[in-house]
Structure formats: structure tokens, C-alpha cells
Design brief:
- By secondary structure, the protein is mainly α.
- It has one domain.
- It is built from five helices and no strands.
- Helix 1 runs antiparallel to helix 4.
- The longest helix has 19 residues.
- The mean pLDDT is 94.
């Protein structure tokens, strides 16, 4: 399987969103020892409403550190696409949606390694 940007699952789209936020943090802070994954992954996939507002606020700080403004625009467009598929940050994800969160996260992470044509 590969990235499915049109997957209707909230868990899947939240997993994608988390992966993008982590990637932004990594590019803003090269060589960082611990990313948001180590600190927030568990809460993000089980109780999204408790962490995503904070992570989206931190994202602005991380984007401001990027020198490549084209990269900033690319990230903002990707974030807009993902958030546009969400209606709200749910208070809880059931186990099935937590699994979809993990799949969305890893599909999006893998897509960052694929060569663009």
C-alpha cells in the first residue's frame, strides 16, 4: 500500500498530519535528538484534541526557522490539504482509528522518501 490522500478516515488523516508536523520540526532543527514523535505520538493517536492544537502552534515557530521559502509554501499547502479533510479534532480515537493513524503516519513518512517526477 502507499499514501492515499483521499482516505476518508479521520485517524488516517491525523496520522498524515502528525508525520508532516514531525517533518517540519526535523527540517527546522537538523540533528534534533528527540522529535514530537517521542513526546506526543501516543496522545496524538489516542486523544488528538489534547495535542494537535499545541503542535499546530509549534509548527509556526518551526516554519519560521526554514530558510527555503518554497519549502515553507510546500508544507503549508500539504497541511492545508490534510486539515481540509478534517472537521474537528476528536477527543478520542477507537482502536481501529488508532491503527489507521499509524498507517497514515507511516504512509506519509514513506512518501517523503519517494522521488518526485
Amino acid at each position: 500500500m502507499q499514501l492515499d490522500i483521499n482516505q476518508p478516515s479521520t485517524g488516517y488523516q491525523l496520522g498524515r498530519l502528525f508525520a508532516v508536523l514531525e517533518k517540519i520540526q526535523e527540517e527546522a532543527n537538523p540533528g534534533i535528538n528527540a522529535t514530537i514523535r517521542e513526546r506526543f505520538y501516543g496522545a496524538a493517536c489516542s486523544t488528538p484534541v489534547t495535542v494537535f492544537t499545541n503542535l499546530l502552534r509549534l509548527k509556526n515557530h518551526h516554519l519560521a526557522k526554514l530558510d527555503n521559502k518554497g519549502r515553507v509554501i510546500t508544507f503549508e499547502k500539504l497541511l492545508g490539504d490534510i486539515v481540509g479533510k478534517l472537521q474537528d479534532f476528536p477527543p478520542h480515537l477507537n482502536l481501529h482509528e488508532q491503527g489507521r493513524f499509524a498507517i497514515g503516519y507511516y504512509h506519509q513518512r514513506q512518501a517523503f522518501f519517494e522521488r518526485k517526477d
